[in-house]
Amino acid sequence: MTPEETARQAAGILDELEKAVVGRRRTLELVLIGILAGGHVLLEDLPGLGKTLIARSFARVLGLDFARIQFTPDLLPSDVVGAPLYDQRSADMVFRPGPVFTQLLLADEINRTPPKTQAALLDAMGEGQVSVDGQTRMLPQPFIVLATDNPIEYEGTYELPEAQLDRFLMRLRLGYLTTGDETAMLRRRVDRATEYVELQPVTSPDGVLAMRNSLEQVEISPDLLDYIVAIVRATRNDAQVQVGSSPRGGLALVQLARGSADGRCTGSSTRCWPASGASRDPGRPPRAPACAGCRGPRCPRARWSWCSARCWTSGSSRSCGTCVSAARPGVAGGDAPVPAVAHRGPRRCCG
Description:
The chain is of the alpha/beta class. The chain is built from 10 helices and 9 strands.
């Protein structure tokens, strides 16, 4: 599968998801990018905001086997990964797999179970396998965990340690719907006269794996790698950050950048941000976005791969709104300062 095919597939997935999930397009995009990047996602927010609905909808639209674990204080590790049981007919111990042997697992309220049970799941997330009684069993592929966390109740909960949170590629908060989106959600419910929306599968497990593999065709410019390293190192040197990002964090940012480019670039699409040039050659793989701030059609004169973090697109036909030049301040968008992480030599955005 090519990146262009992945982009079209991703657009179809998001369109189908929006039939059930109203007003969450950006959240759905981020979850899909996390899935394409091969990671797991933690949804942390108040009850009733659609976290479980998002997980169920993704399982249906992606054509994946689905299982749900409701985490409670008395849940044991064997309830998650499975355990050997005695079979009277064969007079032998037979392994009965737990709910973790699925393709998309909803770990509901993961902070309500003791650390021992949390560790059993997080080990499976990190290794993609389960070891019981000296035998290692591989989990189905793709294996995706969408976990939910209730941040408002602390009695009877066990907060995830930072080291365990590192197993999640993304940690998202949904927030409340806007007035218009909430009204549209209520109107859809009244019009369909049924509680649930029937979603149709857009792809299959093999299709999800093919979409993941297409990320390896997305080019990463050297400037973007330098920028990622600068971000990671800044977290280690900032006095406000107790523990900085590990090298795993840099690898995650690379895959997320690829997933973002893979899911958005469609040949001539104006939502594709090339690392150099105003438009991308359809015969070449798409580049991951090198600009830290642009989120729209790039300036037709944009020829360089480094922009200020304050860069945005004004829609002008001539140049970006506040692009700056590190070599010659003021040529494109004024004398706005370039962030410290961008000072890696004389580069410019437009001009």
